[in-house]
C-alpha cells in the first residue's frame, strides 16, 4: 500500500476543513455584514455564539450560512501543484 493516497487524503481533508472553517464569523461586524449580504434577517433560524465567534443558521434546514469572508475550496490549485 502506498503512502501517497493517504497523504493526499490528509491534505484534501485539511483543505476542505479550512474552507468550511471560514464560514465562522469572527466578529459581531462580520455577523452583521453577512446578514446584510444575504438579506436574510427574516430567514435566520438562530445565531450561535461561542466566545467571540458566530455561526448563523438558516431557517428550514439549519444550514450554516457562509460568512462575508468565506472563500470556497480551490482543489484545482492543489492538484495542479
Overview of the structural elements:
This protein is of the alpha+beta class. The chain contains 3 helices and 2 strands, in the order ααββα. It has a two-stranded antiparallel sheet. A hairpin with a 2-residue loop joins strand 1 and strand 2. The longest helix has 18 residues.
> Radius of gyration, Cα only, in angstroms?
16 Å
Shape: elongated
Mind summarizing the main beta sheet? 2 strands, antiparallel
Order of helices and strands: HHEEH
Q: Please work out how many helical segments DSSP would assign.
A: 3
The end-to-end span amounts to 23 Å
Report mean pLDDT, rounded to a whole number. Answer: 75
Content-based structural category: alpha+beta
- Helix percentage: 40-55%
List how many beta strands DSSP finds: 2
Poorly predicted runs of 5 or more residues? none
Q: How much of the polypeptide forms β-strand, as a percent range?
A: 15-25%
Cross-sheet strand order for the largest sheet: 1-2
Features:
alpha+beta, two-stranded antiparallel sheet, 3 helices, 2 strands, 81 residues
In short:
This protein is of the alpha+beta class and 81 residues long. Helices cover 43% and strands 16% of the residues.
Amino acid at each position: 500500500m502506498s503512502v501517497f493516497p493517504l497523504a493526499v487524503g490528509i491534505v484534501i481533508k485539511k483543505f476542505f476543513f479550512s474552507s468550511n472553517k471560514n464560514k465562522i464569523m469572527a466578529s459581531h461586524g462580520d455577523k452583521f455584514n453577512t446578514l446584510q449580504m444575504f438579506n436574510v434577517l427574516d430567514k435566520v433560524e438562530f445565531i450561535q455564539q461561542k466566545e467571540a465567534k458566530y455561526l448563523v443558521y438558516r431557517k428550514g434546514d439549519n444550514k450554516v450560512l457562509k460568512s462575508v469572508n468565506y472563500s470556497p475550496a480551490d482543489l484545482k490549485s492543489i492538484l495542479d501543484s
